[in-house]
Amino acid sequence: MSTAAVAKATREKARRERLNECFEELARLCDPTGRGVKTDRVSVIADAIRVLTQLRVENNQLRQLNKFLEERVSNLERARAQNVYQQSLLQQRADSLLQQHAGAGMHTGVLAAGPGRIAEALGGLTGVELTARLEDDAGAGLAWLPAPNASEDSKLRPPAA
């Protein structure tokens, strides 16, 4: 045999060995447990095709699940942002009401409290009893009049005789 023929045979043997190693590795990848490792190339390729098909299906399912979860996260983030916005509006409203309450004085607070609170503040007196009590105590009626202002006195009260 010539040296060219020997070199060709050596190269061919190395190629077949690499090919066999690749098929063995593919067989191990298709069945990682090692049970039922097939040695014939057709069954190894059939197993590889089955595994690839299964992985593609699983990949599509995971993509759909990921898309669904991303949409859900997006909706939840949107709802959270809306809740934060509404909460900030409510806080601003509460702050402005507190400022109005502090600036308006006691009259606004008592009237805003409602009739039950007013009656409670007056010691339970209502209607005729309250009128009689105010007539008996001459100074008590003055507590309910607005703050005196001499320039508007003629507009608010009739002249005294």
TrEMBL record:
This is Transcription factor. One of its GO terms (biological process) is intracellular iron ion homeostasis. It comes from the Eukaryota. Residues 3-55 form the BHLH domain. It comes from Auxenochlorella protothecoides (Green microalga). The keyword Coiled coil applies. The keyword Kinase does not apply. SMART domains: HLH (SM00353). SUPFAM superfamilies: HLH, helix-loop-helix DNA-binding domain. GO terms for molecular function: DNA-binding transcription factor activity; protein dimerization activity. The lineage of its organism: Eukaryota, Viridiplantae, Chlorophyta, core chlorophytes, Trebouxiophyceae. Gene3D superfamilies: Helix-loop-helix DNA-binding domain. Residues 45-79 form a coiled coil. Keywords: Coiled coil. InterPro entries: bHLH_dom, HLH_DNA-bd_sf, ILR3-like.
